[in-house]
Amino acid sequence: MWPGYVLSVALAAGLLVLSVSIVRSDAGEQIAQRTADAYRALPQQQRDRTVVFGESYIIAAYLDGYSKRYGLPAAYSANRSYGYFPAPPADRDTLLYIGRDPADLRPHFAVVQTVGDVGDDMHAYLLTGQRQSWDEIWPRLRTLTVS
Predict the structure, then answer these.
(1) Under a CB-based contact definition with an 8 Å cutoff, are residues 82 and 105 in contact?
(2) In a 10 Å sphere around its CB, with 0-12 CB exposed, 13-18 middle and 19+ buried, how is residue 98 labelled?
(3) What is the DSSP letter of 80?
(4) Which terminal residue of the chain has fewer beta carbons within 10 Å of its beta carbon, N or C?
(5) CB 63 within 8 A of CB 75
């Protein structure tokens, strides 16, 4: 029986080493850096009204984790725990969405345009022409799905 335990531990350790070596360790920083590029490309007046929004809580956490390094404001997301943080301020009516598809947000904004590539098959989308207040939008966007 002990050979089975030893083999199980060795296999688990091997898989852990392999998974860590496969995952790019700089992915989060690259996403934050490219998001910051898209954010800084906005005119200052628009930037002052812009919310940076991650498609998932993981993307929002990357953006928050590198916010000081790249000069990003606090990130928002309606996914998982981030969705239960306060909604964006009422005076923020433009959204810089970082993710694969802003489909859930399209009904709430008049214009959606791609403004950059952030890597890992994701883009930066600028959403303008907010149609409802954040108090109305936020509860509708919250999701607990894992993606």
Answers:
(1) no
(2) buried
(3) G
(4) N
(5) yes
